[in-house]
Specification:
One of its GO terms (cellular component) is cytoplasm. Catalyzes the 2-thiolation of uridine at the wobble position (U34) of tRNA, leading to the formation of s(2)U34. It catalyses: S-sulfanyl-L-cysteinyl-[protein] + uridine(34) in tRNA + AH2 + ATP = 2-thiouridine(34) in tRNA + L-cysteinyl-[protein] + A + AMP + diphosphate + H(+). The chain has 396 residues and is an alpha/beta fold. The protein folds into three domains: 187 residues, Rossmann fold (3-Layer(aba) Sandwich); 60 residues, Adenine nucleotide alpha hydrolases-like domains (SH3 type barrels, Roll); 95 residues, Beta Barrel (Elongation Factor Tu (Ef-tu), domain 3). 23% of the residues lie in helices and 27% in strands. The protein is built from eight helices and 18 strands. Strands 12-15-14-13-16-17 form a six-stranded antiparallel β-barrel. The chain has a five-stranded parallel sheet with strand order 3-2-1-4-7, sandwiched between helices. Helix 1 links the parallel strand 1 and strand 2. Helix 1 packs parallel to helix 2 and helix 3 packs antiparallel against helix 4.
């Protein structure tokens, strides 16, 4: 007999570590599992020094969150520990984010945080505590035994508006087998109802929206603080080769940006590429943002067949290149010995550093097949004349 977490023990004999962020989602996970009789241990990670300033509504991982997690644990009667992971977080998340941003990419630190700090380091700590599983408040489903397999698989959740699979594609098979996501079948409204029924003090707490160490949403300010002098001035160049002006550093720009370019032009201009090595910002018309092909790196493949076999066969699937977009039709292909994605309907403003996540469908319950980091994008149309050089034809 398996318990509700697909583990072969009675709940009272099953230790579950819950990653408690101080928000309503992870608090409800702890409450649900405690009510079902599991041996629940709450752990909150101190990831960065939030200082003594007030907590902004919608911010994540501030000092107040640790206090809230502690209060929830006390109300549930479960042990609770706060672990200092600041150094690990800096080395595993903040430093790579900074380097990637300076290189002209648009990195997603939440992917790196899940991949390293939470599902590598915290998971190891959970094992050290004798836990049978690590549970989190992410909105994603995992199920066991697909096609008789002893391993678990990931699926899009019931609440697609809260789908967090985009940030979890890099989870390895070994990690997936140890992780549990009790909220995968719930909507956010239902989660808050559960929180209210359990009398949790965080039942009405606002959702986290910002990157935890970018509390004001200004990436460039954070980069300048972490790497003084990172904002090297350079030219703003049109895709037709004309130099239109100057800028104060590529860290102030992202692919697809229109506002803040500070140029006088009869046509709307968008940032279509960033050449960090030459400190150039390349701008052009909206149609220059059109992308048909993505070259990927650091791929985590969760499909049943080998990745190379799927790519050589041109497997059709659905992909997300932004967390807020629904999956779109695509095809796996081979590119110079590596794997690429052909976007069947195209996409605008795709930036290197973003994630491309694979699915076997677009609906709730669609299986997550992994994903990778976008190393380079190939423009759908060549806007660059010979005088501008070939470097601008393939962005990234």
């Amino acid at each position: 007999m398996l318990n509700s977490l697909d583990l072969p023990k009675a709940p009272g004999d099953t230790r579950i570590v819950v990653a408690m962020s101080g928000g309503v989602d992870s608090s409800v996970v702890a409450a649900i599992l405690k009510a079902e009789g599991y041996d629940v241990v709450g752990i909150t990670l101190q990831l960065y020094d939030s200082g003594a300033g007030p907590r902004k509504a919608g911010a994540c991982c501030a000092g107040q969150d640790i206090h809230d997690a502690r209060r929830v644990a006390e109300s549930l009667g479960i042990p609770h520990y706060v672990l200092d992971y600041e150094e690990i977080f800096r080395k595993s998340v903040i430093d790579p984010f900074t380097a990637s941003y300076i290189a002209g990419e648009t990195p997603i630190p939440c992917v790196a945080c899940n991949q390293t700090v939470k599902f590598r380091d915290l998971l190891a700590t959970a094992r050290d505590l004798g836990a049978d599983a690590l549970a989190t408040g992410h909105y994603i489903e995992s199920r066991a035994g697909l096609g008789g397999s002893p391993h678990r698989s990931l699926y899009r959740p019931a609440d697609l508006d809260r789908d967090q699979s985009y940030f979890l594609y890099a989870t390895t098979q070994a990690q997936i087998d140890f992780l549990r996501f009790p909220l995968g079948a719930l909507t956010k409204a239902e989660t808050r109802q559960v929180a209210a029924r359990h009398g949790l003090v965080v039942a009405d707490k606002p959702d986290s929206q910002d990157i935890c160490f970018v509390s004001k949403g200004r990436y460039a300010d954070v980069i300048e603080r972490l790497q003084p002098g990172a904002g090297v001035a350079g030219d703003i160049v049109h895709v037709d080769g004309r130099t239109l002006g100057r800028h104060e550093g590529v860290v102030h720009f992202t692919i697809g940006q229109r506002r803040g370019i500070k140029l006088s032009s009869p046509e709307p201009l968008y940032v279509v590429a960033l050449d960090a090595a030459a400190s150039r910002v390349i701008v052009g018309p909206r149609e220059a943002l059109a992308t048909r092909r993505l070259i990927l790196r650091d791929i985590n493949w969760l499909g049943d067949e080998p990745l190379a076999e799927a790519a050589e066969a041109g497997r059709e699937l659905q992909v997300k290149v932004r967390s807020t977009r629904p999956p779109a039709a695509a095809r796996l292909t081979m590119e110079a010995g590596g794997v690429a994605i052909e976007l069947l309907d195209g996409e605008d403003g795709v930036a290197p550093g973003q994630a491309c996540v694979f699915y076997d469908g677009a609906e709730a319950g669609a299986r997550v097949l992994g994903g990778g980091i976008i190393a380079r994008t190939v423009a759908a149309t060549a806007f660059v004349p010979a005088m501008a050089g070939p470097a601008l034809l393939a962005r990234g």
